[in-house]
From TrEMBL:
<protein>
    <submittedName>
        <fullName>Phosphatase PAP2 family protein</fullName>
    </submittedName>
</protein>
<dbReference type="InterPro" id="IPR000326">
    <property type="entry name" value="PAP2/HPO"/>
</dbReference>
<dbReference type="Pfam" id="PF01569">
    <property type="entry name" value="PAP2"/>
</dbReference>
<dbReference type="InterPro" id="IPR001011">
    <property type="entry name" value="Acid_Pase_classA_bac"/>
</dbReference>
<dbReference type="InterPro" id="IPR036938">
    <property type="entry name" value="PAP2/HPO_sf"/>
</dbReference>
<feature type="domain" description="Phosphatidic acid phosphatase type 2/haloperoxidase">
    <location>
        <begin position="99"/>
        <end position="217"/>
    </location>
</feature>
Length: 262
């Protein structure tokens, strides 16, 4: 089934217009670009002192293939997180999985919000490529999380995907919205920690992801699909935990950073 929001509401059917400010920065504000590079180095290098955060960044790196929904379940609090992961494992959430699960094949995503076209237009080098002598690598055993270094950097696809998925999930569970959105931001920060993106890449990924989520919600048919998935998810979490969503939200940590599993 096709949805009108499978094509961006912006020009050319993609999200170039949302992130085209980089063109002006690169052409007229080299000081901002330099600061962006320096901030990327600073965040990446400082991560050596926080090995648990590096481990989380590594896990976030593989989340788009394994399922961002499972990864961001951290933000729901211990009981709801456990319930969601068990439900996904047992495939008891077909509507939710169809829209937000299955990695890159999540139905509420798509080519328009993939950042593929935008990356090719701007063709920005990743920090690990642009500054190889200054960026520290944090390799992950069994997986090459730096295979992306030959691909353009701006905007961040990981940040984009985490942004639109957490935005849609927050629409389904508004009582937990702030925690869920916070977890999406953490996923973007993970990319800077690994040295595969600079802050502006992540900011642009979030911007395009939010725009994609807005397009989905403004599409009546997709909004109905998300609403049905939300009802499915809420009922499942309440059944598994024996608590209302309001109760589960009240038990949530103050910050998603407190609930991220390492």
């Amino acid at each position: 089934m096709g949805y009108i929001s499978d094509v961006s509401s912006y020009k050319f059917g993609i999200y170039y217009d949302v992130v085209d400010g980089y063109k002006d920065l690169r052409g007229n504000h080299p000081d901002v670009i330099n600061e962006n590079d320096e901030k990327a180095v600073q965040i990446n290098n400082a991560a050596e002192k926080t090995p648990e955060r590096v481990k989380q960044a590594q896990q976030d790196a593989v989340a788009p293939k394994q399922g961002v929904l499972n990864a961001v379940s951290d933000s729901l609090g211990p009981e709801a997180r456990k319930a969601l992961r068990e439900s996904l494992k047992e495939h008891r959430l077909p509507k939710t999985e169809f829209l937000l699960g299955h990695g890159y094949f999540a139905r509420a995503g798509g080519l328009a919000s993939s950042t593929f076209a935008e990356k090719q237009i701007f063709h920005v080098q990743r920090p690990v490529v642009k500054m190889p002598d200054r960026i520290h690598k944090y390799p992950m055993e069994g997986t090459d999380i730096y295979h992306v270094k030959g691909q353009p950097s701006y905007p961040s696809g990981h940040a984009n995907q985490a942004s639109w998925i957490t935005a849609c999930l927050a629409m389904m569970l508004p009582e937990m919205g702030s925690q869920i959105l916070d977890r999406g931001a953490i996923s973007g920060e993970s990319r800077v920690i690994l040295g595969v993106h600079a802050p502006l890449d992540v900011i642009a990924g979030r911007m395009s992801g939010q725009a994609a989520a807005a397009d989905r919600w403004n599409d009546p048919h997709m909004r109905e699909a998300l609403t049905q998935a939300g009802a499915e998810l809420r009922a499942e979490l309440e059944w598994r935990t024996g608590k209302s969503i309001e109760q589960l939200a009240a038990e949530n940590p103050k910050s998603a950073k407190d609930s991220v599993s390492h």
